[in-house]
Structures are given as C-alpha cells and as structure tokens.
What does this fold into?
Amino acid sequence: MPKASLENVVVASFNNLKSVENRFKQYPGQIAAIILEPILMNVGLCLPQPGFLQGLRDICTENGALLIFRRSQDRRQASLGRR
It folds into this structure.
C-alpha cells in the first residue's frame, strides 16, 4: 500500500463511539467514510456492542459521510482457509 494512502487514513476504536466522534471533531469536513467489518473476525470474534452500529450510522449522517461495511469472513470460509 502506498505510504501516501496511509497518510489519509484516520483510525478510531471499534465499539467506542466517543473515539469516532472525536475523530470527526478533530478533522471537521475531512472524513468521507467509515469503513469497517461489522463483526471483527481477525481478532477472534468481536461483536459490536448494542447501539454501536446505529451510532456509527447516526454520526455518518450528521457529518455527511458514508458508512461502508466490509464483508466479514463467515465460519465456513474461515474453516476452508478462504479470505
């Protein structure tokens, strides 16, 4: 991945709406989208807390940003070693 691409990425914590809100405050008008796996599987199995995904939807709507869910790997694919 080109270094210039990484310079345009802002990271917030999963299951922490406050960290997401802080990023939008820190970079007003500069965040175009939130991209995430709604269920993290590359760290075991990490489910979103109740209200987290809806909170992201609300934050994106308020800030004119897209909310993009990256495809999660299902158990069948994981057991076959597919990504």
In short: The beta strands are 33-36, 66-69. The longest strand covers residues 33-36.
